[in-house]
Automatic annotation (TrEMBL):
Residues 35-199 form the Plastid lipid-associated protein/fibrillin conserved domain. Keywords: Plastid, Transit peptide. It comes from Tripterygium wilfordii. This is Plastid lipid-associated protein/fibrillin conserved domain-containing protein. It holds the Pfam family PAP_fibrillin.
Amino acid sequence: MATCLLLHIPLKSPNPNSRTSKITCSSITDQSQVAKRNLLNLVSDQERGLSTQKNPIRRASIIEAIDALASLSKDTVTTGDSLSATWRLLWTTEKEQLFIIQNANLFGTEAGDVLQVIDVEKRTLNNVITFPPAGVFFVRSTIEIASSQRVNFRFTSAVLRGKNWEIPLPPFGQGWFETVYLDDEIRVVKDIRGDYLIVDRAPYTWKE
């Protein structure tokens, strides 16, 4: 699909009122790539969202960029097989995740990769926070495809695991998220609470 603009260009003619028209086209794909690069540039120095908490102007710019990318992708299907992957956090507004990332040192460790592991065929979702070299906290969920971009989820259990120990935790809720943009590199999400998430495809597959 292409977006075309009709431009009026003056002719080099003795008649100064003479004009011709030129049609220029820009594909939606090209526009999306430009919007994606802009978004990634905006979040590249934001420490997965920690810096953004103190910078409302940058936050507003990032959300505006997300909305622009979402608008270009509003007619795409983002809940198919390409949603299945190990997704790694680049940026979020979710306070709980940012709190853990920021305060992991209080427990004598630091947060590693923060992941979403989705399997559309098996209808599963794991939200994962790693604590290298051996720690991990993950929440298991079941998922249901609700529309072309929306996925419903229900938490089923949670686990805090160390090298030689494991603590099971109770499940705690349900909700939905919409993947407003998806390609072979990144995914952009808005959820039931109005939080935003930007993730890329991790170069590995996480498994329990």
